[in-house]
Amino acid sequence: MSVSSTVVTRDAIAQFAGEVFASMPRVDQRRWAEVYLRGLLLVEGKKSIRRISEDILYLPAHQSLQQFINQSPWDWDPVRARLVRYAESLGTPGAWVLGRTAIPKRGERSVGVARRFLPEAGRMVNCQIGATVSLATDAGSIPVNWRLLLPPRWLEDPELRQSAYLPPGARADPEGRELLAMLTQMTAGWGATPAPVVGDLRHVEDAAHLICALTGRGMPYALEVDGSLNVLDGVSVRTSSAGSRARECLATAVEHFRVLHGGRGTEEETGRRLNVVSSSVRLAGDDPAAPPVRLLSGLTPRGIPVRFWLTNLTDRSIADVMDRLRLHRRSQADLRVLEEDFGLRDFEGRSFRGWHHHMTMVSAAYLFDLLGTRPVSRTA
Q1: Of the candidates 319, 198, 303, the residue with the CA atom closest to the CA atom of residue 266
Q2: Of 67, 95, 184, 296, whose CA is between 20 and 30 Å from 319?
Q3: pTM
Q4: How far from chain centre, in Å, is Cα 102?
Q5: Where are the beta strands (DSSP E) in 241-365?
Q6: Which of the 8 DSSP states describes residue 186?
Q7: Which helix (H) or strand (E) holds 100?
Q8: What pLDDT shows up at residue 226?
Q9: Distance CA 223, CA 225 (A)
């Protein structure tokens, strides 16, 4: 439903803002947070700081609002922890969904910007990359944690570090390690209700490290992987073997797999369904004592494996696992809604702190919308 199609009262936004932003230590910070939240919800089109100031306050207060987003030292982690609790009030999450969003930028001064090859776009794009973990509920997928993926040059160049106000602890970790850090923060720091971790790791270079860490911690997962991922036979422990690629493992042994007739399979973009086959494997480099996991693949009608998934949900049916995996596609669609309707791409500042503040506010606005009280423009 469009943000501009229903009605909200001022008191609803004010009450939500008062609770979600209660961790901000100063009254003026909480006041500006409510203004910014209201702007993300009510301003039509591009949600720039100037437009929020003029449309919500009818005052040229954009400098104060800019200071709140880009320079104010309020901590975004307690706000995100509160968003987790609100999101869980919409129902027990069906999954924690790993995602990423590319934010195109002009120039080279926006924090973390770099020219990158985007597999989803099939071309080089000058952009920021935001990694996120969303809670997938019946109402929607709410991004509750964010990381800005920093190219190494942003940490190695003193001028860039200073221009973006990068904190001393900022690091250019690979995407998998950033995702693991977010998951750890949510479990150990925020007390989030555990749920299976799902996502697409085909283009994550350190995917194996992330999966091994999840296995070692006993965290349930169902993850799409590249066919080149190194795996070992899960029936006989062959710790001395170098293993084989998932694609080769399935391609050479496909005649020994039992096609799961009657399973739901996965839906390709064309709507065609695939047969799903399963094999017990171990991750190369994993603890030899770790239990085997399940390698799944979708087969074309000619028996050729074309997509690959790993899961340690070995006590679940294939149909249930595939349902969980489909939550990633829905979550990516929800991220596009945040881009189009809630200002995810509209951050105009250059600072590291400002980027995290803006993303936190965007998540808060989307969550407020999902709670059921949906706003319209001020003139409605």
Answers
A1: 319
A2: 184
A3: 0.88
A4: 11
A5: 244-245, 275-283, 293-299, 305-311
A6: I
A7: strand 95-104
A8: 92
A9: 6
